[in-house]
Amino acid sequence: MASTVSETPMEVQSDYDREKELKLFDDTKAGVKGLVDDGVAKIPRIFILQPDELDKNNQTCNSNTHLTIPIIDLEGMKNDAITRSEIIEEIGQASRTWGFFQVVNHGIPLDVLHEMIEGARKFYEQPKEVKSEYYTRDSTKKVVYNSNFDLFRSPNAANWRDTIFCAMAPDTPDPEDLPEACRDILMEYSEHVRRLGIKLFELLSEALGLKPNHLVDIGCADGLNVLCHYYPYCPEPELTLGASKHSDSSFLTVLLQDHIGGLQVLHHNQWVNVPPMPGALVINVGDLLQLISNDILKSCEHRVTANNRGPRISVACFISTDLKESTRLFGPIKDLLSEENPPIYREITIKQYSLHYNEKGLDGYSALSKFKL
Fold this sequence. Notes:
Radius of gyration: 20 Å
InterPro entries: DIOX_N (IPR026992), IPNS-like_FE2OG_OXY (IPR044861), IPNS-like_sf (IPR027443), Oxoglu/Fe-dep_dioxygenase_dom (IPR005123)
Low-confidence stretches: 1-12
Shape: globular
CATH architecture: Sandwich
Number of helices: 11
Number of strands: 15
CATH class: Mainly Beta
Family: Belongs to the iron/ascorbate-dependent oxidoreductase family.
Domain Fe2OG dioxygenase: 220-321
Strand content: 15-25%
Number of domains: 1
CATH topology: Jelly Rolls
Strand order of the largest sheet: 2-3-11-8-13-6-5-4
Structural class: alpha+beta
Keywords: Iron, Metal-binding, Oxidoreductase
GO molecular function: dioxygenase activity; metal ion binding
Distance between the termini: 38 Å
Helix content: 25-40%
């Protein structure tokens, strides 16, 4: 990727008005898919990575195909104390060293996973006129469809990706407010993910040496936002990214990805591919879990490459707390602190963190650094 982009002319053109180009793109209410539907052969300049962005995203080396994130089998967890102890150890180790792992035998039926991917596909493949009624920059809405949540805030190249965001918990939406194309499966899949999230938080609590219900009791699993991402075919994938380097704003993320691939995790300064596994879900530690665990668990940076094999679809479920509880403070869990392990972060509200994360956008830097003591 590096050599191709560095050879692309990057001189500032006198006739290039970035703000105008961003607005023209956004005003179509058709997203990146709209560009592809119109037969674009060259990607617009607002999507082309500049050399400094390339440095931030590429680190020092190319993607590593020999490493792989841990795969954890949850089979037998309920009925076998020894198996449960082994799973807790595996999840703890993966969350401390990688911040990412895949789970199999997680309890969500395969047909539900398939229907969720297809529901997202159906939404994006509707006529523009049907989708555009959900297209908005108003982040307070329960359903938000747009391209690049930080389109007008980030100084960086836009990502080759469209997203529909649905707030599913703590307040269950009125089904009529959800897009008809994926309404039923969104409701069903969200309930499955909520149950899985509680299970994972119990295991993570024990991995931290806490009581099983600790993370759930402090509100980590109260909220659920479902983001259905659509990464269209890209005619020049070497010039842009599907999602630039970032860590997640959640406590925990549960990701369902289709067969296309492109997700990469930054591990020891190397980009490691996360190949799709049929029936598996990708789990990753979010910034908020790193904060309250006082850096014991790692919120790992990751990205998605652009592709020319066809649309890639993923469904990211961000498990967090209720943003309306703006007075509740979260900081390093007291039981994890000692003289040898003093707090690294100050106590903050989740609203403070979220406002900073959204304002900053995907700029290649961690949002956590602002809250360090």
